[in-house]
Amino acid sequence: MNLNDYLNINKESRKPFVLFSKPNSEQLIGVFQENTNHYKTSDFTESGFVFAPFHGEEAILIPLEFSEIILETHIESLLIETKTDEIITRNEKEQEAFEDLVTRGIEAIKNGDFEKVVLSRKERVSFRAVELFALFKRLKNNYPTAFCSLFYHPTIGVWMGATPEQLIKVEKGEIKTMALAGTQKNLGQKEVVWGEKEHDEQEYVTKFIVDSLKPFMISLEISEPYTKRAAKVMHICTDIRGGLKPGVGLKPILSALHPTPAVCGMPKQESREFILKNEGYDRAYYAGFLGTLNWNSVLGENEGTDLFVNLRCMEVEETHVNLFIGCGITRNSVPFDEFVETENKSTTMRKILN
Ligand SMILES: C=C(O[C@H]1C=CC=C(C(=O)O)[C@@H]1O)C(=O)O
Questions:
Q1: Cα–Cα distances in Å, from 93 out to 96, 98, 100, 277, 344?
Q2: DSSP secondary-structure letter at 103?
Q3: Which among 263, 337, 346 is the best mutation to test ligand 1's pocket, defined by most ligand atoms within 8 Å of the CB?
Q4: Which pLDDT band, with edges at 50, 70 and 90, does 76 fall under?
Q5: Torsion angle of alpha carbons 126, 187, 145, 287, nearest 10°?
Q6: Has the keyword Isomerase been applied to this entry (predicted)?
Q7: Res 79: pLDDT
Q8: Were both Cys, which of 10, 225, 241, 286 would link to 15 (CB 3.0–4.6 Å)?
């Protein structure tokens, strides 16, 4: 049996599974739960694959002890080559609603309610996913530098994504993370110039992550901001790493970090409340986090954690998919430009649907 057979069997028998591939890795890893139980993390000391929502504490777990792990090497196939870019037909109603939301966000910032908020929208696109495995391989072919995933759980259905953003990597007492924000189109240009608005929104993220991690760390190293390309867009990124104080668990670190101002805002509480009251839809697992928990999937050891923020993702339903896209709003935001930014980000998932 290969990965595709496992995937079909688990889906038919409503058993959770995940198929993932780490950035720049040729390995496809399948974690197939062997029973139909619904597991959740309680304190993040469990081992397995975790899938956490944006709001709330409870994360879905596929426990290592009740799963079969299947590995395959990804062979880039010419048959599933990159398709040409789709021309997006603009939905005026959606545009108006999003620009109105952004306008309200800017007003709240000018009113002093918070400094930054990340606002998002959900877009429905007609699509029938016949072969999930083929779709996943197309995702990996197109985005080899992203964390690619295909997650299924009977309680939430199928989610897929190719995220450029690491939430946290913990290995041998050392933490690695990144502050990623600010967006412009990636046209392959060599010289990249960033505006004040993008620098501002990214600096909020760096400051928040550094301040949140400090109590847990014995050392912290912060890189200079640099440009990180992620498919058709690029971002400003600062790498942050350091040594953990002995005995610090993952749970308090995750509560302090998630959601970062790359997906929520600054301050966290006020911006989160604004999102809840104003976005008008449930983000569910968009802007949550996912990845391996207390499990080094490369070495096969029950140590090490590698989590990513669930961005550039979609929920796959029977006859359509739901794309989730958001962008950071500051006092200098222009509603129309922010809408265009969500369109640009949406091409990451649209491209594999063509
Ligand atoms: C919230 C998203 O992106 C975040 C990550 C990088 C750049 C972002 C931005 O420029 O707004 C966002 O903070 C998304 O892709 O839905």
A1: 5, 9, 11, 20, 18
A2: H
A3: 263
A4: low
A5: -50
A6: yes
A7: 47
A8: 10
